[in-house]
Design a protein that fits this description.
Elements: H1 10-13, H2 17-37, H3 39-61, H4 67-87, H5 91-107, H6 112-136, H7 138-161, E1 166-168, E2 172-176, H8 177-197, H9 203-229, H10 244-264, H11 266-270
Antiparallel strand pairs: 1-2
Length: 278
């Protein structure tokens, strides 16, 4: 999740920075290695992360559920995603994941209507990442990651240093317009840099800003779920970041947008049909 500014002075504003940097560096190292390796290694990592997010969602929305039920939801989600990504193709992948979403949502009981859309977001994002790596290459995945992380970091520092009017106080009371706009600006700069790396046209700048906006929307969506569940973090798995969903909520929303752009051909059109993919 994109970090929210704290109301106190500089020391408290950056008090969590050390833990964030250490755990963030570790996640980055594992992620870069997996993106470079591709294939089963990358697909397995994506499946594990998505399974953990489904487990966190189940724990938040069904806190009274037995432990084996929430763990089972995460395991089934991760295994189902990996199977769909590796052994199915085309529309069958999406169909299989939507059936899995319906089963998992039903298991969450009264909260199934709230859980279903976010479960779909998680699993389709996982599929999108695997497809993006296999069909477009590691450099396109790197672009996506850097846009999401870059806009997140820009929002973190701009929100604390500049402050200003709140973006959506009722849902995310500490998020500012300054941080949001700073995220767009840095995303555009990253898109400009990657124009040469990906042999893309100026349309990649627009695509980068759209991805950043999607990531910010994913951040807000998770904030709304946590507010509904009455929790501060999705879990405490990652020091300085909270849970896996707290760290990757922006990525899953951005990955779904990129998947849609890629499947419809809009990504190639915006990026100038790089490397003859159109």
């Amino acid at each position: 999740m994109s970090p929210d500014p704290l109301p106190s002075g500089p020391a408290s504003s950056f008090g969590d920075l050390r833990a964030r940097v250490i755990s963030g560096a570790a996640m980055a190292a594992v992620g870069v290695a997996a993106v470079w390796a591709g294939g089963l290694v990358f697909a397995a990592l994506v499946a594990v992360l998505c399974g953990l997010m489904v487990w966190e969602l189940a724990c938040m929305l069904a806190p009274e559920a037995e432990r084996h039920r929430t763990l089972g939801a995460g395991l089934v989600a991760g295994a189902g995603l990996l199977a769909a990504a590796l052994w199915l193709s085309g529309p069958m992948q999406v169909l299989a994941l939507l059936i899995l979403v319906a089963m998992l949502a039903y298991a969450l009981g009264p909260e199934r209507r709230l859980a279903a859309p976010y479960l779909a977001l998680i699993l389709l994002a996982g599929l999108g990442l695997v497809i993006l790596r296999a069909g477009y290459g590691w450099d396109w995945v790197l672009w996506l990651v850097l846009v999401v992380v870059g806009s997140d970091v820009a929002g973190y520092f701009a929100g604390r240093v500049i402050g200003g009017p709140k973006l959506w106080p009722r849902v995310s009371p500490k998020k500012t317009w300054s941080g949001t706009v700073a995220g767009w600006v840095l995303a555009a700069l990253i898109g400009w840099v990657f124009m040469g790396i990906l042999d893309a046209s100026v349309g990649l700048i627009l695509a980068s800003v759209l991805v950043a906006m999607a990531g910010q929307a994913g951040d807000i969506a998770e904030s709304a779920i946590k507010r509904h569940a009455g929790v501060k973090d999705s879990s405490n798995l990652i020091p300085g970041h909270g849970g896996v969903m707290d760290r990757f909520d922006a990525m899953i929303a951005a990955a779904v947008i990129v998947l849609i752009l890629a499947v419809t051909g809009a990504l190639d059109a915006l990026a100038g049909c790089p490397n003859g993919r159109c």
